[in-house]
Amino acid sequence: METVYIGKTKDVYRKEDGNFLLKFKDDVTGTDGVFDPGANTVGLTIEGAGQAGLRLTQFFFEKINAAGIPTHYIDADIEQATMTVKPAQMFGEGVEVILRYRAVGSFHRRYAKYCNEGDALAGYVEVTLKDDDRNDPLITADGLEMLGIMTKQEYQTLVEFTKQIGEIVKGELAKKELELYDIKFEFGRVGEDNHVALIDEISGGNMRVYRNGEYIEPLQLEKLMF
Ligand SMILES: Nc1ncnc2c1ncn2[C@@H]1O[C@H](COP(=O)(O)OP(=O)(O)OP(=O)(O)O)[C@@H](O)[C@H]1O
Ligand SMILES: [Mg+2]
Questions:
Q1: Contact 221, 44 (CB under 8 A)
Q2: CATH 3.30.200.20 fits domain 2-88
Q3: What's the CATH code, domain 89-225?
Q4: Which residue's alpha carbon is at the smallest distance from atom 27 of ligand 1?
Q5: Mean pLDDT of 31-42
Q6: pTM above the 0.85 mark?
Q7: What residue ranges line ligand 1, CB within 6 angstroms?
């Protein structure tokens, strides 16, 4: 198989039929040997982290596909820690979409004059550019259009899908008494018609989850869900 990309936590290969294979590695992001899901560098290796991330990803993508929301997901092989997906074209060099249900993290740091940490938010959506050198800057819908990254129509679709997907993830977590504070998604253009679709993964490292006000670590989340 042809190697398309060596990522920090996943490698991407092209299969003979044109689909992509994502290999979930045991490398996790962090700084100075301490696990930090938000970090932009690989910090350490945790045995089983790849499979745990894939199990959650498979679980959520199957629910999202079943709800009729377009994704890249085809199937997953837990044993091999691989997932077969449809190849996506990035918006620019890639965007990340953050959906917030509580005022924590960078939202609270930015807007602390107007909210208290932990205040409820009604599904607030933000888009950032994947740009490690510039710490993934925030961008507006106007900025995305002006810089030729995505059209206004694509932006609207992406926001709508984000809110629908968020409700699905939030609902599944709530079944286990877990509360979703915020979550990060990636979207791309998929298929011959270049439709907007959810790509990448949905695992513990992509979200902040709490139980009774206590933060749940990504690997612990997988144990609590299954
Ligand atoms: N269907 C897809 N088609 C093409 N690329 C994809 C698809 N799904 C995910 N990707 C890309 O595969 C890469 C997986 O690598 P990985 O998760 O290790 O992230 P990264 O790019 O190294 O870093 P980060 O997650 O911090 O941005 C990401 O760049 C992601 O955007
Ligand atoms: Mg990634």
A1: no
A2: yes
A3: 3.30.470.20
A4: 130
A5: 79
A6: yes
A7: 5, 7-10, 12, 20, 40, 72, 85-88, 94, 130, 186, 188, 199-200
